[in-house]
């Protein structure tokens, strides 16, 4: 990943998307904000119990580091599900409280309307950013192990196809910072969840013979869903 701004190390970007002047994107780190304690310091999510004033200030600091000011921040209240939501004129016509209520239980966002930042919050979970160059449509996906097993990336891609005509050949996809296979040790119940979804475990699960525990490669599991939609491997 590369810095979006040399003087703000808390905001990073993808080289793949830097080549697209018609979109703006970023990935924040934990550094560069005003939040305290467990939220220190650059928390931008209003849904996790942080001081709302600190979250607003962090978003202001984030805006300062970007090349343009968004018309709105769309920050869903994620629940590790597989619900995909399109940001459309009907959503934008809602009041602030109406928007907040609508975004409850959403783990992936899509839109083709310019001027709005689609945001997802992750720590160990996998963030996936999608850009349809042909239709100027974007997607932001929160794929934890539950969402990955529930094929949330696949569902988002199919929703983009239904809404915008998106085809895999026109997509750029970025899999963001998240837990590695080496660190992600899971119990048999997690493995069984993936197995029940018909995913090819041989491609993204390995057994540690010393511990008897499986390790899951969430990056590969989500990459498989991208490739199945004919997103070029490059």
Fill in the keyword field for this structure:
28% helix; 23% strand; 8 helices; single chain; three-stranded antiparallel beta sheet; five-stranded mixed beta sheet; alpha+beta; 234 residues
Task: Spell out the blueprint of helices and strands.
Blueprint lengths: L1 E4 L2 E6 L1 H4 L8 E2 L23 H13 L7 E3 L9 E3 L2 H4 L3 H7 L5 E4 L4 E3 L7 E7 L4 E7 L1 H5 L2 H13 L6 E5 L9 E2 L1 H9 L8 E4 L4 E4 L1 H11 L6
Parallel strand pairs: 4-7, 5-6
Antiparallel strand pairs: 1-2, 2-3, 6-9, 8-9, 8-10, 11-13, 12-13
Describe the structure.
This protein has helices at residues 15-18, 52-64, 89-92, 96-102, 145-149, 152-164, 188-196, 218-228, and strands at residues 2-5, 8-13, 27-28, 72-74, 84-86, 108-111, 116-118, 126-132, 137-143, 171-175, 185-186, 205-208, 213-216. With 234 residues, the chain is an alpha+beta fold. Strands 5-6-9-8-10 form a five-stranded mixed β-sheet. A hairpin with a 4-residue loop joins strand 8 and strand 9. It is globular and about 50 Å long. It starts with a strand and ends in a 6-residue tail after the last helix. 33% of the residues are buried. The model has no long low-confidence stretch (mean pLDDT 94).
């Amino acid at each position: 990943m590369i810095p979006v701004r040399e003087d703000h190390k808390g905001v990073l970007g993808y080289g793949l998307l830097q080549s697209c002047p018609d979109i703006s994107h970023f990935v924040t780190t934990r550094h560069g904000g005003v939040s305290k304690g467990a939220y220190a310091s650059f928390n931008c999510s209003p849904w996790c119990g942080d001081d709302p004033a600190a979250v607003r200030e962090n978003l202001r600091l984030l805006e300062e580091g970007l090349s343009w000011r968004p018309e709105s921040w769309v920050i869903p209240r994620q629940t590790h599900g597989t619900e995909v939501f399109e940001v459309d004129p009907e959503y934008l016509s809602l009041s602030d409280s109406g928007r907040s209520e609508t975004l409850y239980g959403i783990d992936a966002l899509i839109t083709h309307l310019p001027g709005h930042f689609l945001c997802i919050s992750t720590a160990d979970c996998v963030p996936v950013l999608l850009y349809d160059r042909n239709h100027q449509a974007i997607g932001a996906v929160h794929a934890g192990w539950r969402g990955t097993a529930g094929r949330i990336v696949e569902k988002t891609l199919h929703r983009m196809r239904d809404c915008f005509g998106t085809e895999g050949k026109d997509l750029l996809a970025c899999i963001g910072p998240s837990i590695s296979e080496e660190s992600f040790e899971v119990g048999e119940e997690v493995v069984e969840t993936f197995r029940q979804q018909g995913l090819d475990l041989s491609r993204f699960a390995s057994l540690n013979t010393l511990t008897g525990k499986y390790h899951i490669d969430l990056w590969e599991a989500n990459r498989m869903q991208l490739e199945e939609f004919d997103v070029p491997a490059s």
